[in-house]
Design a protein that fits this description.
The protein has about 190 residues and is mainly alpha-helical. It is built from seven helices and five strands; from the N terminus they run ααββααβααββα. The chain has helices spanning about 1-30, 30-35, 85-100, 115, 130-145, 145-155, 175-185; strands at about 40, 45-50, 125, 160, 170. α5 packs antiparallel against α6. The longest helix is centred in the N-terminal third of the chain and has 28 residues, at about 1-30. Belongs to the KdpC family. The system is composed of three essential subunits: KdpA, KdpB and KdpC.
């Protein structure tokens, strides 16, 4: 009988009490993060999460990293291929060729690695500043905006290292494209 009472107390304490308290603390201290880090447009409509990458195929937008799971957040993950894996080599070479078609005059060595490889989760919403700057000429051609305007836009969206030491500088593709869309609409 003692064990049943102990089990009931533990279920109530850790199965109900702890989650309710932690949810309350998260909502009070970090409401944006606790609710999924959702990004809203000017019309207050949710357009995505700043933590999950999206597929952009239109040439007038910046593109993110390749996703082997097709940006399906329910199936986070990626094949764990070695750099010598034939399928991995073929996929990265194909991706590099596609980028070179969109960016004539560039060489395979100039294509940033994060544009032809995927992240561990397959959902990375960020690209390197080099990957964003690499896309500027093709986005300028597709939108009619100047390369200078787009370079300034990319610079504005570079996020630094966390606490100044963790990670690498990065650009959130969704946030970048949302501001780019405003620039395109303002031009029309």
């Amino acid at each position: 009988m003692k064990f049943i009472r102990l089990a009931i107390v533990m279920i109530l304490l850790f199965g109900l009490g702890y989650p309710v308290v932690m949810t309350g603390i998260a909502q009070a201290l970090f409401p944006h993060q606790a609710n999924g880090s959702i990004i809203y447009n000017d019309k207050k409509q949710a357009v995505g999460s700043e933590l999950i990458g999206q597929l952009f195929q239109d040439p007038k937008y910046f593109h993110g990293r390749i996703s082997s799971i097709h940006y399906d957040a329910a199936a986070s993950g990626t094949p764990n291929y070695a750099p010598s894996n034939k399928e991995m080599i073929q996929r990265t070479e194909k991706a590099a060729e596609e980028w070179l078609k969109k960016n004539p005059g560039k060489t395979k060595e100039e294509v940033p690695l994060d544009l032809i490889t995927n992240s561990g989760s397959g959902l990375d919403p960020h690209i390197s500043p080099a990957a964003a700057f690499f896309q500027v000429p093709s986005v300028a051609k597709a939108t009619g905006l100047s390369e200078e305007q787009l370079n300034n836009l990319v610079k504005k969206h570079i996020e630094g290292r966390v606490l100044g030491i963790f990670g690498e500088p990065r650009v959130n593709v969704l946030k970048l494209n949302m501001e780019l869309q405003k620039m395109i609409q303002g031009k029309s």
